[in-house]
Design a protein that fits this description.
Blueprint: H1 17-30, E1 39-41, H2 53-56, E2 59-61, E3 67-69, H3 71-79, E4 88-90
Parallel strand pairs: 1-4
Antiparallel strand pairs: 2-3
GO cellular component, one term: cytoophidium
Protein name: CTP synthase ura7
Organism: Rhizopus azygosporus
Length: about 90
Amino acid sequence: MTKYIVVSGGVISGIGKGVIASSTGTLLKTLGLRVTAIKIDPYLNIDAGLMSPLDHGEVFVLNDGGEVDLDLGNYERFLDVELSRINNITT
C-alpha cells in the first residue's frame, strides 16, 4: 500500500523543509522502503526557470531539462535517485 509523508511549513522560506524531507526519505530508504520525492510549488503554470532569481532564488536543472526548485537537487543527492519534471508540481 502506498503511503505519503507531507512536509509543510507554509510560505516561510529557508527553514529547512527540503532538508527535513530529504533526510526523512533517506532514513526510510535505509529501512528498505522504496522512496521518491515530489515538490509542490504554489506558482500558477510557471516553472522556477522562468521566474526572476530575486523572486525565487536558484534553480536546479534536472536531467530531462526541467528547471525546478533547488530542493529537488537535494532530494536527488540525499535519496540517490534521478528525478524528472513529473516530480515537480505547480498549481
